[in-house]
Amino acid sequence: MRPFLWLRSLDEAEITLPIINCQLLKRQAQPEITPAAAKLLGAENPEEVALFFILKVDPATGTITANTKAPVLIISGSSLGYQIFLERKDLKVDEPLINLVPPPEGG
Predict the structure, then answer these.
(1) The CATH number of 4-97 is which of 3.90.1030.10, 2.30.30.40, 2.30.290.10, 2.30.30.240?
(2) Mean pLDDT calculated for residue range 47-65
(3) Cα separation, 69 vs 95, whole angstroms
(4) Which of 13, 19, 29, 46 has CB atoms 3.0–4.6 Å from 52's, for a disulfide?
(5) Residue 94: which residues within 8 A CB-CB, separation 6 or more?
(6) 96, 56, 52, 100: which is closest to 74 by C-alpha?
């Protein structure tokens, strides 16, 4: 699984955002996909939906942050996606990616 992907608008191809699959991040950084959220996309169950965070790179510092407050849900094997806004107070629009990455195995 590649860590970074590009999310491209189907309507406006020049709109492209860097994203990361939440499965690659610390467990506590992975919001739960409810059956209701899965059904919004037409999925039968939450396992059919992949969860991604949109990333932002600060060119001045090289710092990468993730929007954990508004993840993007995408049905596996399709081009359908939906961005949701989570009400949890512990989530941030600009969470440093380094805070979400698990330590290397064995380290």
Answers:
(1) 2.30.290.10
(2) 92
(3) 9
(4) 19
(5) 56, 65, 66, 67
(6) 52
Smallest CA-to-CA distance from 48 within 81, 93, 26 is with 81
Say if residues 19 and 55 touch (Cβ distance below 8 Å): yes
Report in angstroms the alpha-carbon separations of 100 from 39, 63, 87: 27, 13, 19
Q: Residue 39 and residue 33: Cα distance in Å, rounded? A: 10
pLDDT tens-digit profile of 93-107?
A: 999 999 998 888 765
pTM: predicted TM-score of the whole model, two decimal places: 0.85
Residue type, 57: V
